[in-house]
Specification:
heterodimer; A: alpha/beta; eight-stranded mixed sheet; five-stranded antiparallel sheet; 13 strands; globular; B: alpha/beta; four-stranded antiparallel sheet
């Protein structure tokens, strides 16, 4: 496997009227080509902000810490994304080497431009194709994602498509520039389960065919278990556990990951009552010192947890957890 | 002992007119709910599941008299009053409004940003003139807020200060303050994170038992329904395709659609092999329904009779002593059992 993406010490703050808010805090991960990485967490955990940083898509009040480093490894050498500033420079990654699928496909398509024109437009920007060729490629792509009668759909507007079809069109659009990295931000959350199953299958097929890497953002651990190879669990802007999906879900080692799994209603066990994680995610203005999860943790161990930020320790060579519970022996 | 029926719906249809059609001909309609019959027992937690566009919200609203009932009869009998929903005078309707309530999906949109939490919860009491003095109102508000695990200090604040889970608890308190008998919860946990979802579900269940409420719990999430409901009805394209006690439905689903829904839930086990058939296609357009069984366009088992005749609900097995039955609307359920 070849390394596709390295994120090191990504730290990002937002300047707001109420003060500086830390949205992402020392996040590091990497991704191989052909790999699907799940990014899981509750709303407010910073998973979308992290993903948007990969294309520097965050709002203009975002401040990246100087030690943040994002490297995208392309065929003609590595690209240091943090050093790209103007929109011209960023065009290499935005819609080119990196594409993004959003949660709400209705809000992501321009309502007054046909699906086809939107697909052709980006091909004309990012490739040297002729308009005719771009049209051909776009229709072929719509076909590929399972849209029947693609040539007709090509000339239609977003409102004429059903939810599942819109999400497919969105995927087709994201893939037509053959990106190396695809960011999928809750791509199945707005869909019904039967359609969700179709879209998940489609994405797995596409990874096999195109060999790109996917960062898959979701709050649904079930979806992660079915799609991802590796997973990183985020809470209040920090990655608290990461590793191969089998190990993290099979042997969750952070109290928060365990809490998330126990809160899930499971069909194979209807008798155990649901156990919520007590309390609410704190406001970003009241970030706890020490371990970010210490205010809600059932295994809270006093000052050690509330004063010191836990570093990563290894559960297995690839499975890492940031929790003081696992640092006792070391 | 046979359970008492709180709400009974007989062949209820809800049709909405749409534009188009001939000038003097019949106006075209969308059949949002078609020929639905069901009984909701007193004290039950009744689940209604289906994909978007299946008519579950419309049915829920029809039972609240918040959507027009085109034909059919809905009867409400809580032991004190007995109403036929299509035939109520203004006074009865007002009384029914205090006996039935709705909890909405989105706790961010459902609460007025200009009212304090206390005023939001007190509003139903004031409008329905249930309480006669401010002190009485305040007592009731505090009682229900405590039950819903809201901090009494928070009653003076405005909704923007609260997280999604807290807001949903405020919505629940507002719905329950008039002490209704029947509550429709429409996707009430869909917008919440899993950890908070579990908390709100536990709260609903607790309050239901404490106050002896009857719930209609509308959801697209089968695993949530499996955990809280005692009876489930599955809707597709405005029709009921299967109804059964929860455990029966999840262990012995009979309708191909129910089976497909169950198999589409992503399992937490990465190695789980999905043997069930996946559904192709999408729910058909409501303005152009297919003939025969409405599921035939996506059903892996469809044969000629499915494309011709619409199946009716049939009872599977025997009706239990409590009056619980398992019904399915499929021409081939018996063959498919083998």
């Amino acid at each position: 496997m070849t390394r596709l993406l390295d994120v090191e010490n990504l730290t990002l703050e937002f300047d707001t009227d109420e003060g500086r808010i830390t949205a992402v805090d020392e996040v590091s991960f990497s991704l191989e080509a052909g790999e699907i990485m799940g990014l899981v967490g509750e709303s407010g955990s910073g998973k979308s902000v992290t993903a948007k940083s990969l294309m520097k898509l965050n709002a203009s009040n975002a401040v990246y810490a100087p030690e943040s480093k994002i490297t995208l490894h392309l065929a003609d050498g590595p690209v240091d994304i943090m050093s790209l500033n103007t929109s011209k420079e960023l065009q290499v990654v935005r819609g080119g080497a990196i594409s993004m699928i959003f949660q709400e496909p209705m809000a992501s398509f321009a309502p007054a431009i046909t699906i086809g024109d939107q697909m052709v437009e980006q091909l004309l920007i990012h490739t040297s194709m002729s308009a005719l060729k771009a049209r051909e490629v776009s229709i072929e792509m719509l076909n590929r994602v399972g849209i029947a009668d693609a040539a007709t759909r090509f000339g239609q507007y977003a409102f004429e498509l059903s939810g599942g079809m819109r999400q497919r069109a969105m995927i087709a659009m994201a893939l037509s520039t053959s990106p190396k990295l695809l960011i999928a931000d809750e791509p199945t959350t707005a869909l019904d389960v039967t359609i969700q199953a179709q879209v998940i299958d489609l994405m797995k097929d596409l990874v096999k065919d195109f060999g790109m890497g996917i960062v898959f953002i979701t709050h649904d651990l079930g979806v992660i278990a079915q799609t991802a190879d590796t997973v990183a669990v985020m809470y209040l802007g920090r990655v608290i556990e990461k590793g191969p999906v089998r190990q993290v879900i099979g042997n969750p080692s952070h109290p928060y990951t365990r809490g998330l799994i126990n809160a899930l209603p499971r069909l194979d066990d209807l008798d155990t009552p649901l156990s919520p994680i007590p309390g609410d995610i704190p406001s970003p203005l009241e970030r706890p010192n020490g371990c970010v999860f210490s205010t809600r943790c059932g295994d809270y161990m006093g000052p050690k947890c509330s004063a010191n930020i836990p570093t990563f320790s290894h559960i297995s060579p690839d499975h890492m957890v940031a929790c003081h519970l696992h640092q006792q022996g070391l | 002992m046979k359970q008492e029926v709180l709400i009974s719906a007989k062949e209820v249809s809800v049709h909405y007119p749409i534009s188009g059609g001939k000038l003097f001909g019949p106006k075209p309609v969308v059949r949002a709910v078609e020929n639905v019959s069901l009984n909701i027992h007193k004290g039950s937690f009744f689940g209604l599941v289906g994909e978007s566009g299946s008519g579950k919200t419309t049915l829920g609203r029809a039972l609240l008299k918040a959507a027009p009932i085109t034909s059919g009869i809905v009867n409400f009998n809580d032991g004190e009053v007995n109403y036929n929903l299509s035939n109520m005078d203004a006074k009865q309707l007002k009384d029914y409004r205090s006996r039935s309530q709705l909890i909405f999906q989105d706790p961010y949109a459902a609460l007025s940003p200009r009212m304090t939490v206390r005023d939001i919860i007190a509003e139903p009491l004031e409008i329905m003139k249930i309480t006669s003095s401010r002190e009485e109102t305040d007592t009731k508000v505090r009682e229900i807020a405590t039950k819903c695990r809201l901090n009494l200090e928070h009653l003076r604040r405005f909704p923007h200060a609260f997280s999604g889970g807290q807001r949903q608890r405020i919505s629940i308190a507002r719905a329950l303050v008039s002490e209704p008998k029947f509550v429709v919860a429409d996707e009430s946990v869909a917008a919440l994170d899993v950890s908070i979802q579990a908390d709100v579900l536990n709260l609903l269940k607790e309050i239901q038992q404490e106050m002896g409420l009857t719930f209609l719990f509308i959801s697209h999430d089968l695993s949530v329904v499996a955990h809280v409901c005692d009876h489930v009805a599955v809707m597709y394209f405005g029709r009921l395709v299967e109804t059964a006690p929860t455990r029966e439905l999840f262990s012995n689903p009979r309708h191909p659609y129910t089976k497909a829904l169950l198999s589409a839930i992503p399992s937490l086990d990465p190695d789980a092999v999905n043997t069930a058939q996946k559904l192709e296609g999408e729910i058909p357009s409501a303005s152009n329904p297919p003939p025969g069984c409405k599921f035939q366009t996506r059903c892996p088992n469809a044969i000629d009779v499915c494309r011709r005749d619409e199946p009716l609900l049939e009872t599977v097995g025997e009706v239990s002593l409590e009056g619980e039955e398992h019904n399915v609307a499929c021409h081939r359920w018996q063959e498919l059992m083998e």
